[in-house]
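Section 5: illustrative case.
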């Protein structure tokens, strides 16, 4: 099915709702405050920037995420939960937070509580919210994000409870306002959804089929970001390597490699110096993409390449469509073209039927690849996925023991990799002061490693969003320490 853009009139209709809510909010004596609570991945973080953009236009003042719906002792006028359902514990956390707002709602009945995102694309979750969380006023899923103004309008003006789960398949909404968290780093969505149906994963059910944005829209957004002083962008998609496959015609852009090359050409001569992207499915990572990455200096030599497991049999049961050998071969080809590539991965421990021998294959692969970073997860059965129906779930104690062994192995690799950086000078994009030590600055290398460093800078403005060469003095497991030697 070809991807459609949400019709212009529909977005215009939302602008009218924004205006009505804004007028009501501006007429209030005290400016209404709103809080967004975000759970989950970068895609959700970025969706929350769109939510923030719409709420701000509706006249809300955005306040930080504080407990029980209060900010500075005042109960928020609106609280929105942008939820995640990738694992059971993500869902439990969200329910805990929603429940904690019941008291605030009793004190302030016109407080608007909204639950949206991945969790609310699941019927059993919506039923649970309807039954147990009467304090929730609006429920909608990932496909209806652009209709937030309409839902808030109906809640406020018609005092109606809204539960909107219907949507048109295969649409992409353009032109939403975005309030970006950072003034020098930005997310750019290039596609939505996933067609892969890995047997453990809930994402295709809650995010729908793959929909790519048009290249012209993406390039226009990136041009605007470069003009506004953004230094680094991260292209987002559940599987960026299948970009464009659903587009009927896309200005000659055939693949993600084509798009990436076009972005590099677009930003030449601007202050936008770094491009990252995530996530890449190993089965779709083409040689053409490796070549484009190697060719353009603006593409960070960093790759998140989730392997999930080392045993070919388990990979097959996961429906990953590659083998341990073909994955290792891909890594070898990447390292051949880009010897300094920084690789990270996702690994699931305790997938149904995983034996000790299967798990040894995972350890073996981790030793062979030498990842700079691995995100390790305990398998969590998700309602409606094939793997959750498998009667041969691995006992908890075995999973725990395997998980600890994997974490220990990867930590030693992390540390060794970081220790190899000591004595080198690396380029860092300075993000500001370190949160844990205000006498230090913090930033990230091209490989996305965190560097905390001292620098002789008079004001923060001189440092934030600037590139700086840092001499690395010391390695920690998950970060590096050093001192600035030269600012751009
Ligand atoms: N259980 C555990 N981890 C999961 N992931 C996705 N689904 C599950 C699940 N059911 C992990 C995968 C994916 C990452 C984003 O989350 O490793 O790459
Ligand atoms: Fe989930 Fe697999 Fe799609 Fe990634 S590629 S979002 S793991 S189904």
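Designed sequence:
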């Amino acid at each position: 099915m070809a991807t459609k853009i949400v019709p212009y009139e529909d977005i215009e209709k939302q602008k009218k709702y924004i205006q009505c809510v804004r007028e009501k909010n501006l007429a209030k004596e005290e400016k209404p405050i709103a809080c967004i609570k975000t759970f989950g991945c970068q895609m959700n973080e970025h969706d929350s920037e769109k939510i923030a953009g719409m709420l701000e236009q509706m006249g809300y003042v955005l306040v930080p995420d504080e407990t029980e719906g209060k900010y500075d002792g005042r109960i928020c006028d609106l609280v929105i939960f942008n939820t995640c359902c990738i694992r059971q514990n993500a869902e439990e956390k969200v329910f805990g937070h929603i429940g904690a707002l019941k008291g605030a709602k009793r004190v302030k009945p016109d407080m608007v509580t909204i639950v949206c995102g991945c969790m609310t694309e699941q019927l059993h979750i919506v039923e649970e919210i309807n039954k147990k969380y009467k304090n929730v006023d609006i429920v909608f899923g990932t496909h209806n994000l652009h209709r937030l103004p309409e839902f808030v309008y109906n809640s406020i003006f018609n005092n109606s409870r809204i539960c909107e789960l219907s949507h048109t398949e295969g649409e992409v909404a353009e032109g939403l306002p975005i309030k970006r968290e950072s003034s020098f780093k930005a997310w750019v969505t290039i596609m939505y959804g996933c067609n892969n149906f890995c047997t453990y994963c809930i994402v295709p059910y809650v995010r729908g089929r793959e929909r790519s944005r048009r290249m012209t829209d993406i390039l226009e957004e990136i041009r605007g970001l470069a003009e506004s002083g953004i230094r680094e962008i991260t292209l987002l998609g559940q599987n960026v390597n299948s970009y464009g496959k659903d587009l009927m015609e896309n200005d000659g852009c055939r693949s993600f490699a084509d798009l990436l090359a076009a972005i590099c050409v677009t930003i030449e001569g601007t202050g936008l110096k770094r491009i990252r992207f995530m996530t890449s499915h190993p089965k779709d990572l083409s040689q053409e993409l490796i070549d484009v990455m190697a060719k353009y200096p603006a593409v960070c030599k960093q790759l998140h390449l989730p392997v999930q497991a080392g045993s070919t049999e388990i990979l097959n049961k996961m429906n990953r469509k590659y083998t341990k050998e073909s994955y290792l071969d891909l890594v070898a080809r990447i390292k051949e073209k880009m010897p300094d590539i920084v690789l990270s991965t996702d690994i699931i421990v305790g997938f149904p039927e995983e034996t000790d021998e299967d798990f040894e294959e995972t350890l073996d692969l981790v030793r062979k690849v030498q990842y700079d970073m691995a995100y390790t997860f305990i398998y969590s059965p998700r309602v409606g996925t094939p793997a959750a129906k498998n009667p041969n779930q691995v006992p908890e104690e075995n999973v725990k023991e395997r998980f600890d062994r994997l974490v220990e192995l990867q930590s030693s690799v992390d540390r060794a990799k970081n220790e190899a950086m000591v004595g080198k000078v690396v380029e860092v994009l300075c993000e500001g002061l370190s949160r844990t030590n205000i006498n230090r600055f913090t930033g990230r290398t091209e490989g996305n490693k965190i560097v905390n460093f001292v620098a002789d800078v008079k004001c923060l403005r001189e440092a934030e969003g600037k590139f700086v060469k840092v001499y690395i003095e010391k390695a920690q497991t998950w970060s590096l320490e050093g001192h600035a030697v030269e600012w751009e």
